[in-house]
Structure formats: structure tokens, C-alpha cells
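Input (structure):
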């Protein structure tokens, strides 16, 4: 894949980029419009943008608007997500999306489930830890026509608990997104649901002064 250079440096290929081809083929039967957008992204590559969190070499390059400013927050888990953004037609628009996705580790193992709650987006690991992101998140619309925004969410400390890979999470990045954009056409009836395939990389940060770092 050809990569587009940023003003500062070039983004390393991530699982989201490597897996995009297979995802496009797998989603073909369910959403042709979204697949076309994903295929376009696959051919052109994802734009690399400025700013890196601290010195952790796993931290993604992101726009300044969603940069992690605290140098003592480091990535402790990275997961590649494949799933859907769920929209419901309210008579005027498709409203806010609710996620349903599975996160895989770098070896392709299922590690985390991602879903929506009344308190915000949540992630639950197989090992029992759970984190819920505060709303609203910081966002960057990197490719609004073809991909949902990149996000930086602060973890809700009161709703972050349990042992395991997500324990102690303080911040979450959603980056390298493809697909997941609300349908371009209006719904035909109130309550109509549209599940739009998407992929993304999620990076979970933890304060380095925590005991479980």
C-alpha cells in the first residue's frame, strides 16, 4: 500500500490498514455504498497526521485537536475493531450512532467487546475489566465523507473497573477509521435501523503512576 506523507512523519501501517481488504470483501453483501468508500480508502491509504502522545512508540499520530497532552499517559493496549455503527431514523435524521464491535489484539485474538450504554461508549475485556468513555469526546473529522471521526475520550473513573487488560484506563483513542458513516439517504419510517460496517484502531492509555501500569 502506498502511504501519504504528513508534514512531520509517516504513519506506520496498522492492523486497521492491513485488514481493510478482507473487511471490504466480507461486508460486500451488506452495504455496497460503504464498501465502495472503504475500497477507495484502501487504494489511497489513510492520511498520516501530526502529533504523537509522549514517547510511547505505540501511540498513534493524530491531529492536534485530539492529541494526548499529558506526557505521563502511555498506551497499554491496542485493539483492531471490526463491527457496525448503528443508526436509527428519527424522522429528521439518523441521530447519533451506537457502536457494536469486536476488538482483536495484534495476534488476531478476540479480546474486547465494544458497545453503547446510556452513559457512553463502553469496552469490556474477556478478562473482566470494563471502561466507559465520557461524552462528548474530542473529535477530528479526518475523512467525513467516508469514515466516522477520530476521537479522544476520557474514561469515566466511576464506571471503569475490574481486573484485566482495560484496568486503569484513563484515555481512549479511536483512529484510522473507515466506514461507519450514516446513510446518505433519508429513512422511510421512524425507528428504521441502519447498521453500517466500520473498522478502526483503538488505543487505551493509562497514567504511568498507576500501580497496574
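Output (sequence):
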Amino acid at each position: 500500500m502506498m502511504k501519504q506523507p504528513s508534514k512531520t512523519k509517516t504513519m506506520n501501517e496498522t492492523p486497521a490498514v492491513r485488514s481493510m481488504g478482507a473487511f471490504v470483501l466480507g461486508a460486500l453483501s451488506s452495504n455496497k455504498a460503504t464498501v465502495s468508500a472503504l475500497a477507495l480508502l484502501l487504494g489511497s491509504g489513510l492520511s498520516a497526521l501530526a502529533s504523537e502522545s509522549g514517547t510511547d512508540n505505540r501511540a498513534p499520530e493524530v491531529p492536534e485537536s485530539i492529541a494526548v497532552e499529558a506526557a505521563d499517559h502511555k498506551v497499554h493496549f491496542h485493539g483492531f475493531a471490526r463491527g457496525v455503527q448503528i443508526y436509527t431514523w428519527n424522522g429528521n435524521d439518523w441521530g447519533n450512532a451506537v457502536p457494536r464491535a469486536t476488538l482483536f489484539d495484534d495476534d488476531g485474538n478476540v479480546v474486547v467487546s465494544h458497545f453503547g450504554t446510556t452513559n457512553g461508549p463502553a469496552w469490556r475485556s474477556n478478562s473482566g475489566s470494563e471502561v466507559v468513555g465520557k461524552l462528548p469526546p474530542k473529535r477530528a473529522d479526518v475523512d467525513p465523507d467516508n469514515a466516522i471521526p477520530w476521537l479522544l475520550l476520557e474514561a469515566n473513573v466511576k464506571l471503569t473497573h475490574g481486573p484485566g487488560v482495560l484496568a486503569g484506563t484513563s484515555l481512549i483513542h479511536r483512529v484510522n477509521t473507515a466506514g461507519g458513516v450514516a446513510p446518505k439517504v433519508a429513512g422511510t419510517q421512524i425507528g428504521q435501523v441502519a447498521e453500517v460496517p466500520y473498522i478502526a484502531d483503538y488505543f487505551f492509555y493509562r497514567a504511568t503512576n498507576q500501580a497496574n501500569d
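Notes: The longest helix spans residues 15-27. Strands lie at 73-88, 98-104, 110-117, 120-125, 130-132, 138-140, 150-154, 169-179, 193-207.
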